[in-house]
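ESCALATION

Customer reports they have been waiting on this structure for their group meeting. Please prioritize. Original submission:
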Amino acid sequence: MTRRNWLGPLVGAALVLAFALPGPNARALDKIAGGTLGGQAPLWPIYIGIHKGVFAADGIDLSLTFAQSSPSAVQQLTAGSLDVLMSVGITDPMIAISKGAPLAIVRIIGEAAPYVLIAKSDIKSIKDLKGKTISAGTVSDIATYYIGRMMEANGLKKGDYELQSAGVAAARFAALQAGVAQAAMVLPPLNFKAEKLGYPTIALAADYVHDFPFTCMAVYKPWAETHKDALGRLLAATTKGMDWLYDPPNRQAAIDLLVKVAHANPEEADESFDFLKKIGYFERSGKVSRKQLDNIVAVETSLGFIDKPLTADELVYPGITAVRD
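Update from on-call: job pushed to the front of the queue and completed.
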């Protein structure tokens, strides 16, 4: 072998190593312990952030722990077992903060409630529910409040219908199927399954309630105090994940990702994509509305879950949370 011939492979190997090894200014990814509730479509931007490299591109290594319920997730965050809740019902962190928990809301994730009211095939509208039973959550479940608003907008008041507490959406649908209720408040993709079984959608909560958000990202403040830069990058990357989802060329890749990562049914993943886009589910600006926070505080106070004055500024993280009026 000539000198030219054996030198070539050595130079090539050196170049490979130069590109493969981190440079002197490269830094390790910031590890963040994230939590959320089990779910499929509402966690789309988070799945995108993790599996499409969006978080890593902003220097974030996010691990995700799934909690069994919103109160359980908030308890783990309050205990410091988690750094941040990536997506959780907004009322539970609010209630915890009102009781002195060292938490803060840093972003809205779901702006519109994805609740869907389904019913027996002979019920065509909300007005047909007069004298009927609706399978709902517990008395403290915010879904029960949504039902009240929807009924009121159609001329039905308390006493015109009966609410039956049945826990989670799957249990509510089971009550409808068993015939002990004539309607049920559920979440996607159950409404798509229900339609195929002859239980039509008669109303969407998002068409009736627009004055407060649905889910949020909440943070453990002691952790945030020493990780403000990482938290800021996490927030920015979450917005990028939403932008990726809404970019038309990414539609099929997003559906394929949900099927692979969340084990979603392909047809239901496709329907969920259109549904969430239709109701404007994701809050894409990254800004929290002070007015909307005040509205939901008023609701929770009226229901007796917050027992002392609480302002929007007490709920957010100053200097981190982007707030708008």
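Sent to customer with the following note: The chain has 14 helices and twelve strands.
Escalation resolved.
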